[in-house]
Write a structure and sequence with these properties.
alpha+beta; 343 residues; 17 strands; 6-stranded mixed sheet
Length: 343
């Protein structure tokens, strides 16, 4: 190895730099450990210019604050170790240290979130440790739908990307915030992706995951989150291959339905919406009131008049009770569904 390195060092430094620039950032750094004679070539701007994205000057021009550097190598590692804020806080940019591929982080304000402007469901405070000026905090909701989009022209070409959700859970976050069905697709594709099932809580019963996958045939693979070095949680939503040139757009979506729906349909919820004396009322009914769930019973009483006391009285769920239910829903007062999620 030393003899091979000695032979290469006989080449002009410009040739060595050109050879190294055709490798990778990792290989270039490793080569300096083979021989001290490589160091000058490895540190040259000619090498690190090739490792930077071809549009790096355009990206730096969009930075919210000046990016100061003296060499291309210094710039490369600066972009690897810090997320540069772009476009007035609408985007953060960094490079993957090993490959030099472009990476982006979208703030929650740039995501499409169901009911995100409704203060009953979401609030937007500043939280210490966040990479953006504000975060979305979920108060309470019976459906969670989050979608993000990015144009392929912004990405490194011919590269496999993975999309992640970065978030925090409050200590009182309820277990029913999972599972989450996620998908990654190119807009315009006619075929819907199969998607992936993920769990936002770390302390999930792995046996439950196994049973779920066995019970539903061809259930997508389940994933669990892991904690990042900054204390936030991170979970992969899916991956895609960027080969659409400058004309494509990728959509990343995640939706919680099954966990909330099962809770929202539960007897415990609809029991609270029924009159406290509904069993006493049924005992006075002229004919049996047949139902299988409390939710079914509630709407049965809304849609039909029940004859009581031998035809002397007609009963239904009153409009005030319906109004009370609507108000309860609009205010997000599902005590069994409350969840805190910072995006």
């Amino acid at each position: 190895m030393e003899m091979e390195a000695a032979n290469i060092l006989k080449l002009p430094e410009g040739c060595i730099s050109e050879i190294l620039s055709l490798t990778s950032p990792r290989d270039a750094c490793r080569s300096s450990a083979i021989s001290s004679g490589f160091k000058s070539a490895v540190d040259s701007d000619a090498v690190w210019h090739r490792f930077l994205p071809s549009d790096y000057l355009e990206i730096l021009a969009r930075s919210d604050s000046p990016v100061v550097y003296s060499t291309k190598k210094q710039l490369y590692f600066l972009l690897c170790h810090s997320l540069v804020l772009l476009d007035g806080g609408k985007l953060r940019f960094m490079l993957d240290k090993k490959s030099g591929k472009k990476c982006y982080m979208l703030p929650s304000r740039e995501l499409t979130i169901a009911w995100k402007d409704n203060e009953a469901y979401w609030k937007w405070p500043s939280i210490p440790g966040s990479r953006f000026t504000e975060v979305a905090v979920l108060r309470s909701v019976c459906w969670l739908d989050i979608r993000g989009k990015i144009e392929t022209r912004m990405l490194s070409p011919m590269t496999t990307y993975a999309a992640y959700l970065v978030y925090k859970l409050a200590p009182n976050a309820h277990d029913c915030i999972g599972p989450v069905k996620t998908s990654v697709r190119f807009l315009g594709d006619e075929v819907e992706p199969e998607g992936t099932v993920v769990y936002l809580k770390e302390q999930v019963n792995r046996q439950d995951i196994f049973l779920r996958r066995r019970r539903v045939r061809r259930e997508p693979v389940s994933r669990l989150p892991h904690e990042r070095t900054d204390g936030w949680l991170e979970i992969e939503l899916g991956e895609f291959f960027s080969d659409c040139g400058e004309d494509g757009k990728v959509e990343i979506s995640s939706a919680i339905s099954s966990g909330f729906k099962s809770a929202a349909d539960s007897d415990a919820v609809w029991q609270r919406f029924l009159p406290s004396d509904y069993l006493g009322i049924f005992a006075r009914s002229d004919s049996p009131v047949v139902y299988s769930t409390k939710k079914q019973l509630y709407f049965l009483l809304c849609d039909s008049l029940v004859l009581l006391d031998g035809g002397k009285l007609v009963n239904s769920v009153t409009s005030s009770q319906i109004s009370s239910l609507s108000r309860t829903l609009s205010e997000g007062k599902f005590s069994n569904l409350s969840a805190k999620l910072f995006v």
